[in-house]
Design goal:
mainly alpha; transmembrane helix; urea transmembrane transporter activity; Na/Glc_symporter_sf; transport; 16105_t:CDS:1
Length: about 675
Amino acid sequence: MAEIILDQGIGWGIVLGFGAFFAILMTLLTMAQKRYLQEYQTSEMFMTAHRSVKTGLVASAVVSSWTWAATLLQSSSVAYKYGVSGPFWYAAGASIQVLLFAILAIELKRNAPNAHTFLEIINVRYGKRTHLVFLFFGLATNVIVTAMLLLGGSAVVNALTGVNIIASCFLLPFGVLIYTLFGGLKATFLTDYVHTSVIFVIILSFLFTVYGSSDMIGSPQKMYDLLVKVSEKPCDKEQFKIDYPNIAEYPSYGICAVTDNEQGSFVTMASLQGLIFGIINIVGNFGTVFVDNAYWQRAIASRPSSTVKAYLIGGLSWFSIPFTLATTMGIAGVALVGAGKLDPLTDQDVSAGLVLPLAATALLGKAGAFAIMVLIFMAVTSAASAELVAVSSIYTYDIYRAYIHSGALGRQVIRQSHISIIAFGIIMSILAIILNFIGIDLGYMYLLMGIISSPAVIPVTYTITWSKQSATAAVSAALMGVVCGITAWLVTAQSLYHEITIKSTGENYPMLAGNLTSLITSGLITTVLSLVKPANFDFEITRTKLEVLTDDEVVTNTLHDDPIERDPVRLRAAFKFAVTSSILLTIVLIFIWPLPMYFSNYVFTKPFFTFWVAISMIWAICAAVSCTIYPVFESRNSIISVFNGILKDLRGKDIIKDKKRLSQEVVPEKNNA
């Protein structure tokens, strides 16, 4: 483990200062939207952003909410462990879920346009028993994701600045709590945009530094030579003790030829362990997209005409973040070890996600460490804001309004949302501290998540897309899936390693067995039971029974009632486009692109590696334009209105009197007592 590079004051400044800055900025933006755009903070606005967000902002929000600490840290770790296959399988294995979610997103608009959460749909379709079962899976997914955010973020803050891990776990979500309380879902979209923009700027800076200006690497050709040098080095434990007397334990990764890679090379897709990780990644991330209410909320908040485009743009843009960053910084860690510029990392450091910060520090010193601190802060807080609102909406609509006070409206809904946001933030901080102390780190949680969440994937998918699935089939599949998945996971660990410990259960093969069993068992059970005894659900029930809350607002002439936006023919066409495009992209990313290189045992030549790096560079630039420039262009009229309003206020004119409220009128709230 490298020595601490930054002063604690810098760590405190980023965690507290940036948190306070974004809390103030987003609060001011919320006030500006209310004054100049008449976006009043009603219960519907707080939870759904009035279902009117445009394509670019939704795409940017999807990228931001899917850019966890793990996206940056774990992707670099698997690059360090497996070479170029690690970044690809991380990116491809976790982007196809977002692409395929476009199908569910448009089906949501067609079959349940007034829903606030995906669990509301389950409740209406199947009833309370099934609702409670999937309530567990939904909340469990949010807990796992938030735990990973705080585990990864606190580990980096502690490693680079020495700030206490307990303090980091509590303070990282603090600013997020404040602006989420004030602005609700729309505020998270705005911060998502800012965070995504900063993330792309830093990633592109690393990219051009490593492959352009760095004295240690400086070009794809030099990177290739350094990686080949490491892969040709024999794995000699005795020699390692002589070369590195300060490192007690012989590390498994990044110092010599890669086990199970073709020719031991870091520059090949023919990596068995990389492929196994890819399968785990694919299975695990279906659960953390399809069963995470944060992604359903982004679909709920988007315009019907924007939904499919937003998820396709978001999925393809997100691909570039782990692919480009890890193809730059993850394998740079290997190259730097080979060049003697960085000590080999221990297995514990690699699992904790410290490849990225340590490589950045070796390359750029304090500037690199500072950039990583900002990068991780942006990833943790943007994704955490999405999780906070997701859990808040589940508590409000699927616990409070479903089981405690069914008639709650208006301010009561917002008040309960505020309470749940604060409570969840505190609970997750405590849980992250507990996990840290018992030795559960980011890498372990990342591999585990699919075992817990993926049994709900197929039943949830069928809920919105297939009228034949019965309540019995859905519940049986989810419960049997998680039981069989956990059993397969633990039995495999015991069989292969003769013990059940954190180390043995965290290995690739037990995790692979558990993840695959959870998803496949659940899918088979619900499909077979639904075919044997099919239901015949009428989706007109979910279209009409789920209603927009209108207790504190009169919704007139709004986008929600726009007949063009809700035209069944247009929505059907969008559904067909979503199915065709997302499935085609999935086939390309998972089969057509990587598998021929795997089965042919192809090892990259220097020109091909240069081409590979160029692809990552071009993809990242295109993604940055899509997520930073396009949303501004799309919202230019609103931005101009806000600036004009500010100028009028500065000149002493009252913008509220000058501008008619065309979109909505706010009337006194009904008595909710």
